[in-house]
Amino acid sequence: MSSQGVSKAIQLLSIFSVLSGFPDLVCADPPYNVCSTTTIYGLNSLFQSNLENLLDSLPSKAFVSHFDNTSIGNGLDRVNGAFLCLNYVANDQCRDCISTAAYHVKKLCPNMNEAIVWEEECQILYSNETFLGHLSTTGNIPLDNKKNVSDLESEQLRFRSVVNDTLQNLIKQAAFNSSTDMYATKPVVFTDIDILYALVQCTPDLSPDNCSICLQTATTEILAVYYFSRGARLLSRSCYLRYEFYPFYEVATEPQAPVSPQNPGTRKDGRRKTGMILIITSVSVSLFVATLAFYIYCLATRNGKKKERKQYLNREVQLPDIHDPSYTGPYQFHGGKILNSQEFPFIDLATIHEATDNFSESNKLGQGGFGPVYKGVLRDGKEVAVKRLSSDSEQGSEEFTNEVLLIMKLQHKNLVRLLGFCVDREERMLVYEYMPNSSLDVFLFDPRRRSQLDWSRRLNIIGGIARGILYLHEDSRLRIIHRDLKASNVLLDCDMNPKISDFGMARIFGGSEGEANTATIVGTQ
């Protein structure tokens, strides 16, 4: 090779070395982290000392167990920590992974009282608060394979259905089969040449129900945005799921090819050295070109996925019939509109039956044009109000879709919060926060209760209603006219603060609309 060629090869090697030093320029690799943004410990404090001791103790524990928790210190200086390795990882790999995670958590979240770091095959969490046995579904990190399963929408929908069915089966196995250690894997044939490999795992401190809730939430989140990706994973504090078209959980090492001993002192040494230089240079140049091409591909794919995801979440499509017994997907549909479970949380029918004691008459709060309203208590103790659409109410069916699509996007202290919805065959239900003082009409038209509305409370209620309407008309991202505002649609919380409810008749204005035809008479008595 000429001196000029060697010089160019060296320049290419230098550029490759620079690029390899910036992994974020290619596609993001672990570690992934979530750091507390509100609590910070002092340098050289007792909490820092306890944290250092705790992190130093975890790798040795990881060599004998894939999950452990420990605490060091007392009072405000107490540090609680835990780690989890994926079950398919060998003990020595678990120890090495936890050692790496302990190093990264100190570097990525310095001086934080709470942090979590995920490596490729393990995670570490520490906090000044007690978290053992507590379910957490916040701060989840979804990740995807950058390749699409297909460019055909029909194939993407079929893939999503297969993934969902596979994960649902694994969730039942991991959460409710005591012999699985809250871990399950399964290969599923997708096409003649493609086999889908899936894995789910919960931290063993969770109850079976909480493990199921965590994995159901993870499934909903991952399929909401990555339904078209060939593979994806979701990192959570309490659970983990992943699926790919290769057996990522079947760890195997390939035997190394034997190396022939070299005979020093021969006249072929010079040729061998020259040949090695040529090979190394060629390989380095190839690696550089491949790295540059992969970087460009990642940028293009990422932009394309964002565009696809935005188009998907903002369009109307006709998707599989929800009444089809074979459909168990994380989406619910009505009138061709997508009700995405991540943006519009879905609550299953069994949970609502349990919360309302099977719609017991003793839990019935009232009857409206939409249908009956029941009080319920969810498993976490939260009180809710469940509006159940009457089966013979055609008007209520339209109101249902309008209310879910509309009120979930609104956030104001004087608007009632919609916590979730349920669609199961003929059943349609809306789940709201519970208002213990019922509605304003109960006080206005009851002589005994009316005496509780002194002028101070009346002014507070009037002001709250005005603030809610002002928000709808001027300050929300959508300009909304309620069109059915009345005393029975103003609910009162425990402090008699008003909250506007029932947006089934609401009308959305376009951003540039100053007026619209509202001559049509709507509303209920």
TrEMBL record:
Alphabetically ordered keywords of this record: ATP-binding, Glycoprotein, Kinase, Membrane, Nucleotide-binding, Receptor, Repeat, Serine/threonine-protein kinase, Signal, Transferase, Transmembrane, Transmembrane helix
CDD domains xref list: Gnk2-like
GO MF annotation, one: protein serine/threonine kinase activity
TM annotation in the entry: 276-300
Domain Protein kinase: 359-525
Gene3D superfamilies, alphabetized: Gnk2 domain, C-X8-C-X2-C motif, Phosphorylase Kinase, domain 1, Transferase(Phosphotransferase) domain 1
Chain ranges of the Gnk2-homologous domain: 29-131, 140-248
GO cellular component: plasma membrane
PANTHER family associated with the record: CYSTEINE-RICH RECEPTOR-LIKE PROTEIN KINASE 10 ISOFORM X1, RECEPTOR-LIKE SERINE/THREONINE-PROTEIN KINASE SD1-8
Name of the featured protein: Cysteine-rich receptor-like protein kinase 10
Taxon lineage: Eukaryota, Viridiplantae, Streptophyta, Embryophyta, Tracheophyta
